[in-house]
Amino acid sequence: MRDVAGVVSRFFAACNAHDPDRLAQCFAPHVAAVGPDGEAEGREEVVSYYEVIWTAAPDMRFTVWQTITEGDEIATTALATGTHNGPLLMPGGDSAPGTGRRIGLRCCWVFTVEQDLIASYHLFYDQLEMYAQLGLSMPVVGPPP
């Protein structure tokens, strides 16, 4: 029997260790990731997203609250905590310089696992909560063109 949740546990362990090599080993070569700040495709691009986060918040950690597994899909809720000390990619593509503020964001990932590797995931978090904790104003966004 496969341990589908095991790869997600390894994912969070690698994230908390800030270890790009271990993180890459969690992903299928064709992994696709979607989150509020954009999309990433392929191992290198997805790992580079986390390297940006680790640079922005060198003490970033994820505390997993709950994991629900249904077949090859896994939903995980967690708390992301860290200190915003470096440039951070924001939803919409802008970058925010370090503020020195602590953040604690409630997050949810929905993973799809294939052959014991993460093939895709969607990341959800409250963008307003993040902007407020960083002391930033939400950008005004109009309807798509």
What does this structure look like?
The chain has 145 residues and is α+β, with helices and mostly antiparallel strands. The chain has one domain (4-87, 99-134): Nuclear Transport Factor 2, Chain: A (Roll), CATH 3.10.450.50. Helix content is 28%, strand content 41%. It has four helices and eight strands; from the N terminus they run ααββαββββββα. The chain has helices spanning 4-17, 20-24, 43-56, 127-134; strands at 27-35, 38-41, 61-70, 73-83, 88-89, 95-96, 102-114, 117-125. A six-stranded mixed sheet has the order 2-1-8-7-4-3, with helices on both faces. It has a two-stranded antiparallel sheet with strand order 5-6. A hairpin with a 5-residue loop joins strand 5 (88-89) and strand 6. The longest helix has 14 residues, at 4-17. The radius of gyration is 15 Å and the shape is globular. 19% of the residues are buried. The model has no long low-confidence stretch (mean pLDDT 92). One of its GO terms (biological process) is polyketide metabolic process. InterPro entries: Cyclase_SnoaL-like, NTF2-like_dom_sf, SnoaL-like. This is SnoaL-like domain-containing protein. Residues 8-120 form the SnoaL-like domain.
